[in-house]
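Re: weekly structure request thread

Next one in the queue (137 aa):
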Amino acid sequence: MDDAAASAGASRLGFTTGQVIQEFGWSDDVDDVLRTAIEATTGTELVDEDYDDVTDGVVLWWREDDGDLTDALVDVQTVLDDGGLIFVFTLKAGRSGHVNHSDIEEAATTAGLHATSTFAIAEDWSATKLGNRGRGR
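Done, posted below.
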């Protein structure tokens, strides 16, 4: 992925300058150019899984064999500010470690979230935006 494509992908996430974005699931297969573009968009470095202050957003890199996605989604919400953005980055179809969208939707629902959109974010990765379920009156 080139820098221009990464910058365009990062801008689709809706993060803004000054926001603190927490990253979960980092491994050597993540798209480092995209990570750098997210940091350029916010002007801050991504914080890791051990960060324990309030964050404005979450990026969760997730692969088929990473464990229980529902548990991970519950965990990522612990320090997320109200209205914070959550994105699950999964490998695209046909790549080893791909996660079906229906599995993401099921895990999100169980964790009290819902999938609002999915789009290509990098050469090998798709992004699924998760939102909080609205409370009924």
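The longest helix spans residues 32-42. The first strand starts at residue 21 and ends at 24.
Next request, please.
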